[in-house]
Amino acid sequence: MSTAIRVLVIHGPNLNLLGSREPEIYGTTTLAEINSTLEEAAVNRGAEVSAFQSNHEGALVDHLQQEAPQAQGILINPGGLTHTSVALRDALVGTDRPVVEVHCSNIFSREEFRHHSYVSGIAVGVVCGFGPRSYTMGLEALLSHLSDSRG
């Protein structure tokens, strides 16, 4: 059994389109490239990541319930569910794992409806507005938080 810190990386709806969807907002980096960068960053810290993307809220909830017991933390970009999903928020709370929320764009400089997040209030931190680097910054922060918590 591995003693490495395991982080679940959860990507919400439409994030499978990164790299081609609204590149002026989200950039040209693909989701596969983001996941590869996260894997490398985790290995460099003696950790591992397990990434999952779905366009379906229930699939995200099911995945969290199934996989969170084997993880120490969760890095999540909930996509559009950020602003709408109490179910996803409750699933995250139910994992009893620290959560870091990330967004490629700065949700606070966009449309008013994007300014509210159901996840932010239960997250240990939020990183947004740095494009794909938001993910690596969020992972670094989560790993540091987990290390600090271990003593």
Task: Describe the protein in words.
The structure is a single chain. With 151 residues, the chain is of the alpha/beta class. It has a single domain (1-74, 98-106, 129-151), classed as Dehydroquinase, class II (Rossmann fold, 3-Layer(aba) Sandwich). Helices cover 38% and strands 19% of the residues. It has helices at 23-26, 31-44, 57-67, 86-95, 133-150, and strands at 5-11, 47-53, 73-77, 99-103, 125-128. It is globular, with a radius of gyration of 14 Å. The model has no long low-confidence stretch (mean pLDDT 93).
Give the gist of this structure.
This protein is of the alpha/beta class and 151 residues long.
Key features of this structure:
single chain; 151 residues; alpha/beta; Rossmann fold; 5-stranded parallel β-sheet; 5 helices; 5 strands; 19% strand; globular
Secondary-structure map:
Layout: E1 5-11, H1 23-26, H2 31-44, E2 47-53, H3 57-67, E3 73-77, H4 86-95, E4 99-103, E5 125-128, H5 133-150
Parallel strand pairs: 1-2, 1-3, 3-4, 4-5
Helix pairs in contact: 2-5, 3-4
